[in-house]
Amino acid sequence: MFPRAHHRALARARRGFTLIEMLVVVTIISLLVAFAIPLYGQYVRRSQISEAVVFMSDYQVKLEQYFQDNRTYGSALCADVASPSWSNFKPANARYFAFGCTVTGGGTGYKLTAKGVAGRALGHEYTMTESGAKSTTMYDNEPQINKGCWLQAGAEC
Q: Which of 41, 122, 135, 151 is the most exposed place for a label (fewest CB within 10 A)?
């Protein structure tokens, strides 16, 4: 009924994969994993670092509004008056960073800080001043880094 070539093809199909075919598949999968896992880790770190950028930028705007109304940034804890709900810079929904704010120059300046406390944000520290000067004082547990920008994806601005 069926030609002999068809029977050989069916017999080969029943045998499964050869060792070479399996090695090729394993090699391709291992190469994909070797590149995908580190890239995913960097992606997660950048997404967690964005928390510091968002909260510090938001608080900077609030401090400037406070300064426009009061001609000072507050005393020791940045706008530490009782009326605004944002008077103490401790965002309730922050997950990866601890934030701080200190007044400098007798109320004419401030320094915001964000220090990584969880996840891939550990080992990252950022600062911002009233002049808008941003700096990275620690990036990926490298304490000697002192860059004049907020590093998010690499060790250079």
A: 41
DSSP string, 96-147: SEEEEEEEEGGGTEEEEEEEE-SGGGTT-EEEEETT--EEEEEBTTBTT--B
Mean predicted lDDT score pLDDT of the chain: 80
CB 94 within 8 A of CB 116: no
Full-model pTM? 0.71
Q: What is the pLDDT of residues 58-79, one digit of tens each?
A: 888 888 888 888 888 877 666 5
Euclidean distance between CA atoms 123 and 115, whole angstroms: 8
Angle (CA) 135-122-55 rounded to 5° is 55
User: CB within 8 A of 132, min separation 6: which ones?
Assistant: 60
